[in-house]
Amino acid sequence: MSITVMLTQLGQGMIVTTEIFFLTLLFSLPLGLIISFGRMAKNPVINLLSKFYISVMRGTPLMLQLIVVYFAPYYVFGIRVSNAYRFPAVIIAFSLNYAAYFAEIYRSGIESMPVGQYEAAKVLGYNKAQTFFKIILPQVIKRILPPVTNETITLVKDTSLAFVLAYAEMFTMAKQIAAAETNIMPLMIAGVFYYVFNLVVAAVMERIERAMGYYR
Fold first, then answer.
1. In 115-141, which positions are buried (b, 16+ CB within 10 angstroms) versus exposed (e)?
2. What domains appear along the chain, each with residue ranges and CATH number?
3. What is the pLDDT of residues 67-93, one digit of tens each?
4. What is the pTM assigned to this prediction?
5. Is the CB of residue 198 less than 8 Å from the CB of residue 18?
6. DSSP sequence for 14-47
7. How far apart are CA 184 and CA 15, in angstroms?
8. How far is CA 136 from CA 25, 119, 120, 146, in A?
């Protein structure tokens, strides 16, 4: 296999990896915020359910969650799924998993805010929604950026777990080509891709963090 053909096939895998990455963030970040609200809710039922969800998602392997999401429709509900369901199953499993981690990050950031800020906002006439979205949330985002960056970098590497559902992302393509050609080069190229991808992610997050800095 020529290097051009190899890079073309790996490029297709790179596109899939990038799609998994961005779609997971698109769904898991807002879902994590909603779950964090449930985790902090005064209603004991909502609080307990949110806590249980986070415990299950963080306490079981993502690989197992991928398998459950893909096969559950058939074994639980008797619904037959086609190969077209593989990609949605990957996105659903990744989003549900990472939402649990983001929920705890959000919760730690929100609970770290001084009570005085809520009281001051109330005195100024802000309602609860205005207080949260105009005063609390911007400060929370500033505080949680480092742990969110860590999870985002982990997500880049975790995209390789899509192979569990036989979905051909970057690392799966690299393994297939390496096995067929008995050549380690595709795996080395994949490693460089993940490294560069993470460098870009870290640089973007660092720039966002600087832009939100209090002292510039």
1. eeebeebeeeebeeeebbeebbbebbe
2. 3-211 (1.10.3720.10)
3. 999 998 888 888 888 888 899 999 999
4. 0.88
5. no
6. HHHHHHHHHHHHHHHHHHHHHHHHHHH-SSHHHH
7. 21
8. 22, 12, 12, 17
